[in-house]
Write a structure and sequence with these properties.
46% strand, 206 residues, five-stranded mixed sheet, three-stranded antiparallel sheet, 10 strands, mainly beta, single chain
């Protein structure tokens, strides 16, 4: 009985190891190259040329326009843009061939989800609604970068952001951005990056 018990324990241990290996494989996917986000930056729609690691998203911006020969401030809503830089990393680093054209990943869509560090994360109440959008961009062995819509116009017209146009409050969030695509062999690939966003009615650029 003692020998049988020991054999059973050995078989059980082997089963656990095999099961754990299968789990890792399922998590990593079948693609031989891993899509990695090197950086996420963003710019306010009010100052589209100024990118940074944290976004100050202005919910309403007064833009000077000439009306009937006079300059007036016109309240305007801008969307905010993000940029993502990517790289491809082989899961098997000893592969002598390196990253090939077959490993190139074509990104076809992305999803943005907003959250707060205090745990209040109800969409439309505490944070803007998450959204999905389409994008077409191919990451090659040399990497690459692309722009995308990080905060939509409509989000600034909905709760909880719309009320910020009339009070000095701020909403501090983190945006988790996940990009989805396939390599040239049809294997699904995804990568997620995060960036801080502070929403409020900030001073208008001159």
């Amino acid at each position: 009985m003692s020998a049988m018990f020991k054999s059973w324990r050995v078989l059980a241990a082997i089963a656990v190891v095999v099961s754990a290996g299968c789990g890792d494989l399922a998590t990593q996917g079948r693609a031989p190259a891993q899509l990695t986000i090197l950086s996420l930056t963003a710019s306010s729609g009010a100052t589209p040329a100024e990118f940074g690691a944290t976004l100050h998203s202005d919910v309403i911006t007064n833009v000077k326009k000439t009306v009937d020969g006079q300059q007036v401030d016109v309240p305007t809503i801008f969307n905010d843009t993000g940029t993502a830089a990517f790289a491809l990393i082989l899961k098997n680093p000893v592969n002598p061939a390196g990253v090939s054209e077959l490993n190139s990943v074509t990104i076809s869509r992305y999803r943005v989800v907003y959250r707060r560090t205090d745990g209040h994360n109800t969409p439309g109440v505490d944070v803007p609604f998450p959204f999905d959008s389409a994008i077409t961009f191919t990451v090659t062995a040399d990497g690459g970068s692309t722009g995308f819509n990080l905060v939509r116009h409509s989000a600034k017209q909905e709760a909880p952001l719309a009320s910020l146009a009339f009070n000095p409050d701020l909403i501090n969030t983190i945006a988790d951005v996940t990009f989805y695509g396939q390599d040239q062999a049809g294997n699904d690939v995804s990568a997620t990056g995060s960036i801080g966003i502070d929403f409020g009615n900030f001073g208008d650029p001159q």
